[in-house]
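assembly run, all chains below
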Amino acid sequence: MLNYIIRRLVFLIPVLLGVTLIAFSLMHLIPGDPARSMLGEKATEEQLEALREELGLNDPLAVQYGRYLGQVVTGDLGKSVKSDISVAEELANRLPATFELTLFAMGVAIFVGVLAGVIAAVKQYSWFDNISMTGALFGVSMPIFWLGLMMIWLFSVKLGWLPPSGRLSHEIELTTITNLYLLDSILTWNWEAFWDSFKHLLMPGLALGTIPMAIIARMTRSSMLEVMRQDYIRTANAKGLSRFPVIFQHALKNAFLPVLTVIGLQFGYLLGGAVLTETIFSWPGVGRYVYLSILGRDYPVVQSTILVIAAIFVIVNLITDILYKYFDPRISYD
Amino acid sequence: MSAEINPTGHPKAGTTKVKASSLWLDSLSRLLRSKTSVIGLFIILTLVVTAIFAPYFATHDPIEQDLLNRYAAPSSEHWLGTDGLGRDIYSRIVYGTRISIQIGVIAVGISMVVGVLLGIIAGYFGRWIDNVIMRIIDILMAFPSILLAIALVAVLGPSLTNAMIAVGIVGVPHFARIVRSTVLSIKETEYIEAARASGVRNGEILFRHILPNSMAPIIVQATLSIGTAILDAAGLSFLGLGAQPPKPEWGAMLSDAQEALQTAPWAITFPGLAILIVVLGFNLFGDGLRDALDPRLKQ
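ok done. output:
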């Protein structure tokens, strides 16, 4: 197992190198002069030259890439051209917000998706199966930015139940430890902050989780249906085991492997989808940061943020592969 | 279609009439038996007909402004109300079907042509060519798709064409992987071996023998990708990185209407519903097509 993990980590190196190459190329693919593109038409020649020098754009490409790689390896992700703040610092502040949102969205998606998929499979062709799978079909076709806006209209504008934007109301005070507000409010025993941050998290989390929820539900159902036809399930039923352990201990554990693959892949979708969700709900995470940087043509920020998100995605996929072993001990890693 | 079969080959032996069928006819009949795929097909046909006859269906010019009638509620004059510049939302949605089809065809066309070419070359030639191509595919797949599309448009500049190119590039890895795995199994079959032994050139084997036999998964992937491409391109336009004003693109319409969320919810409701219905149509049809072309996958 350890050998497998080490081998996979070694295989990650060329992929991550490729990712850095693409992220690096982004800035050099800009048609025309990147400095002009960042500073706009009104910039003077001196300002442009200063920026070119600062970004090292006057050096040969290979030298620039080598320097960029050296910086990335040492954790230096560059500075924002607009604010002069270090990208690593900004990301450290914003990543917890995005993590909180994606973890919440994924948690809801897995809980509801797996449960709906299992019930739909056990009660195949029942009204629950029909309704949940029709819902799942709508879910996978849903433009989440539209769903988000409709949620704001209904729950914030019309009913006034939930706040339309942000992570925490201004009047609420919270001592941050991890910057994951839900967790911090539990750690500091601050239930007012917990309830407030939960209300802020609910709409963006549900909007972001809709598509993964639908995909997980469909995959769980089809995988469960296949497993439930196997002989060992028939044997478990025949020897009189009650329905609950047969479904959840025997069937679901074996049906979970393809679901796990989908969960791993959906995590990447969530990181990408966070750009849209965070923009709609003014969620101060990495997605909104990268979006605002694109609008502001702050390419060093775009470059580094995309690199970090891709690296997280690759690592999550690795963790998914490792988790396979738990769900299917027959898998050999040799 | 039927054919006379003489099992013994003897001229005087009795013949039996059997029904001849093909993969495509069988699949078509399976496809049309599925209610959900027929609904999907109906939605797609409606979209195509609306796009072709948009000037006949539309009640107003989609870009004509009427500033005295900003955010007018749905009425007999404006069936789905008007937007922030007084433009008729119904007519803009009708004309928007043309853009959706354009996005679906062009973006998925790019993914398909490049992906199929890479997949077929990687699968057929194997060895280092396969290794190089598949590592590039792995790297492309290391990026969450919408984020890669956003990054590409950020570089290329915001426009509908660039959004379609970006969404097309993002879809390449899916086609490449599917085609590669299909080619890997087909190239080991006897008829390919026979073609190779009889001196048929690689190009001919690839495009006359292997490609036509790999079409089923490519068609399924293309149909399912159209829905995703429309969603992604609408997302890009929503962020201001796709279609630019005054194009009646549905994602851009949603983006424009955000400011009036409290006062004119219709300006947001209908373009979003249009996206949902069209993507649903392609997903329903794609699901049905997959089940019809490969019944083993049907659960």
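Chain A touches chain B through 49 residues (CB under 8 Å).

Residues 2-73 of chain A form one domain.

not gonna interpret more than that til we talk
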